UniProtKB/TrEMBL annotation:
Pfam families membership: MarR_2 (PF12802)
Any single biological process term in GO: response to stress
Protein name: MarR family transcriptional regulator
Domain HTH marR-type: 12-144
InterPro entries from the UniProt entry: HTH_MarR-typ, MarR/SlyA-like, WH-like_DNA-bd_sf, WH_DNA-bd_sf
Entries under SUPFAM superfamilies matching the protein: Winged helix' DNA-binding domain (SSF46785)
One Gene Ontology MF term: DNA-binding transcription factor activity
Alphabetized SMART domains for the sequence: HTH_MARR (SM00347)
Length: 156
């Protein structure tokens, strides 16, 4: 089966189709890279968020990364079972769990970030550094119209 399915010429010339194909290739490359460390993309996203936000309540973590609460429980359970995060009662509200990255989690996160960077380098290997920077700026504007290159909206 071909990596890129057939699409009529008119469709292949649409930015939406090209963005979708680029996203699918990027997703595949990153997923394969993370698999080298035995990690799935959702687990990596949650571990990365915990590393950045933690300690954070499980509910807030789910809202931050846009994961359904039931799915979040399963992901955090997996990360905890692998020793990558700890889950303890939140000191601010003992009814909630605070999730925090462990030392092993920080090590794994560094390795998976390097793998993700390599995958993204492969994704954009056909571009010069200047073209890659331009692509990133253009994609940011497509994703969030009205935002400047720093991610701030023009209104404020």
């Amino acid at each position: 089966m071909p990596e890129t399915p057939y699409a009529p010429t008119r469709i292949r010339s649409l930015p939406s189709w090209l963005l979708g194909r680029a996203a699918a290739r990027g997703h595949r490359l990153v997923a394969e890279a993370l698999a080298e460390e035995g990690m799935r993309m959702m687990h990596h996203a949650v571990l990365s968020a915990v590393g950045e936000l933690g300690p954070v309540s499980q509910a807030e973590l789910g809202r931050s990364v846009g994961i359904d609460p039931k799915d979040m429980v399963a992901v955090v359970n997996d990360l905890q079972a692998d020793g990558l995060v700890t889950r303890t009662p939140d000191p601010k509200d003992r009814r909630k769990n605070a999730v925090e990255i462990s030392a092993a989690g920080r090590c794994r996160l560094r390795r998976t970030e390097e793998l993700g960077d390599r995958a993204n380098d492969e994704l954009t290997a056909g571009l010069t550094p200047a073209e890659r920077e331009q692509l990133m700026a253009l994609l940011a504007r497509v994703v969030e119209p009205g935002a400047d290159s720093k991610g701030e909206t023009e209104a404020g």
